[in-house]
Design a protein that fits this description.
single chain, alpha+beta, three-stranded antiparallel beta sheet, 8 strands
Length: 362
C-alpha cells in the first residue's frame, strides 16, 4: 500500500500543515520554557551573590513572563506558512494584544525597581518617598493608557477622536481642579528644591512649627504649643519661609541700661565685663559690646554674640547663664541697672511774680 496515498486520504494537505505548525509552536514553547527555567534558576543564584540590581531585574522580568501571552505570538508565527488568511488575521491581532500586555508587565517591573531603588536612597526623606510613590502611580497610569490606546487602534477603533476628546476633557478637568493641581505641582517643587524637610523647624508668616509631613496637597506642622497647623503647598511656596534648622549659628542681641549716676570709668569697663562673661563659655563667639546711646532714663548698652549651634534650647541656656553672670558682676562693681523713671526739679522763688500760675491759682 502506498503510504503517501494513505497520508493524503486520512490527513490531507491542510491538516498536515496545521499539525506541522502546531508541532513547531509546541517545540518553540518547550525551548522557551527550558530557557526560562534554567535562566531564572542560575540568575537567581547569581543575584543572591552580587550587589548589582541588573541581575535581580532580569530575574523578575523572566518571572513576570506569562506563557499564555507568549503562546499567542508563537501561534501566529507558526501560521505564517499556512494559507489561512482569516485565521492569521485573528491570531495577528491576538498576538499584538498579548505582546502589549506582556510589555506592560515588563514595564511594571522596571517602574517597581526604580521606585524601590529611589526609596532606599531617600529612606530618611519621607517627603521624597511620598513623591516617588506619586510618580510611580502616574507612570503606571500613563503606561496603561498608552497600551490601551494602542490596543484599541489594533482592534479598529478610531483612537484619534478618542484622544481629541480626552484632550478636551483633560483641559476642562485641569481648569476645574487648578487649585488641587497647583498644590500638587507645589509639592513637587518642595520635594525637588527642598526648602525644608520633615523634622525642620520653620516659620511661615506668623506660624512656627516643626514639619511633620509633606503631602501631595498640604504640609503639616506641629506648633510649639502642641496644635497641628495644616498649610496648602501652594500657599506655603507663596509665603516667606524661615528654616531655623539650617542655621549654622544663631546671632543673639541683648540690651540693658545702667543709671546715669554711674561713673565714666565704670561705664568703660562694662564692655569688657560682657566680653569676659561670653568668652569663657563654649559654643559661643563674642562679637561686640558698646555703649549704644544716652536714653531718657538710662545709659543703654548693646551686646552681640553668636551661638555656634541652631539648637534653641542650648541658645536659651547660654543666654540665661550670661545674663545671670552679668547681674552678679554689675552688683560686684556697684553698678545699678536702670528702670524707667523721671526726675522732676522744683525751684522755689519768693517773688510770686516770677512764677507763672494757671488761671484760678493765686
Amino acid at each position: 500500500m502506498n503510504l503517501d496515498w494513505l497520508d493524503n486520504q486520512l490527513l490531507g494537505e491542510p491538516v498536515r500543515d496545521w499539525l506541522m505548525a502546531l508541532a513547531i509552536a509546541a517545540g518553540t514553547l518547550a525551548v522557551l520554557a527550558l530557557i526560562k527555567r534554567v535562566s531564572v534558576h542560575r540568575l537567581a543564584a547569581l543575584a543572591a551573590r552580587t550587589e548589582t540590581e541588573v541581575d535581580d531585574f532580569l530575574v523578575e522580568v523572566m518571572r513576570r513572563t506569562r506563557w499564555l501571552l507568549v503562546l499567542l505570538p508563537v501561534l501566529y508565527m507558526a501560521t505564517l506558512s499556512l494559507d489561512v488568511p482569516s485565521v492569521r488575521a485573528v491570531l495577528r491581532t491576538a498576538a499584538i494584544l498579548a505582546f502589549l500586555l506582556q510589555l506592560g508587565l515588563w514595564s511594571l517591573v522596571a517602574i517597581d525597581f526604580w521606585v524601590d531603588s529611589a526609596r532606599r536612597k531617600r529612606l530618611e526623606d519621607a517627603a521624597s518617598v511620598t513623591m516617588i510613590g506619586a510618580f510611580s502611580f502616574l507612570g503606571k497610569a500613563m503606561l496603561w493608557t498608552v497600551i490601551v490606546l494602542v490596543a484599541l487602534d489594533n482592534l479598529g477603533v478610531n483612537v484619534t477622536a478618542l484622544i481629541a476628546g480626552l484632550g478636551v476633557g483633560g483641559v476642562a478637568v485641569a481648569l476645574a481642579l487648578q487649585n488641587i493641581l497647583g498644590d500638587l505641582l507645589a509639592s513637587l517643587s518642595i520635594v525637588l528644591d527642598k526648602p525644608f524637610v520633615i523634622g525642620d523647624s520653620i516659620q511661615v508668616d506668623n506660624f512656627n512649627g516643626t514639619v511633620e509631613s509633606i503631602g501631595l496637597k498640604t504640609t503639616h506642622l506641629r506648633s510649639v504649643s502642641g496644635e497641628q497647623i495644616v498649610i496648602s503647598n501652594g500657599d506655603l511656596l507663596r509665603s516667606r519661609i524661615r528654616n531655623y534648622k539650617r542655621m549654622g549659628e544663631r546671632r543673639v542681641v541683648f540690651n540693658f541700661g545702667v543709671v546715669y549716676k554711674t561713673p565714666p570709668d565704670k561705664l568703660a569697663r562694662i564692655p569688657e565685663i560682657v566680653r569676659g562673661l561670653i568668652d569663657k563659655r563654649e559654643m559661643v563667639r563674642f562679637d561686640r559690646a558698646h555703649l549704644m546711646r544716652l536714653g531718657d532714663s538710662s545709659l543703654d548698652f548693646e551686646a552681640v554674640y553668636f551661638v555656634l549651634s541652631s539648637d534653641y534650647l542650648l541658645h536659651m541656656d547660654l543666654q540665661q547663664e550670661i545674663l545671670l553672670g552679668l547681674l552678679r558682676r554689675l552688683e560686684e562693681e556697684g553698678i545699678a541697672l536702670a528702670y524707667p523713671s523721671r526726675t522732676l526739679f522744683f525751684e522755689r522763688s519768693s517773688d510770686k511774680s516770677a512764677v507763672n500760675l494757671p488761671a484760678g491759682f493765686s
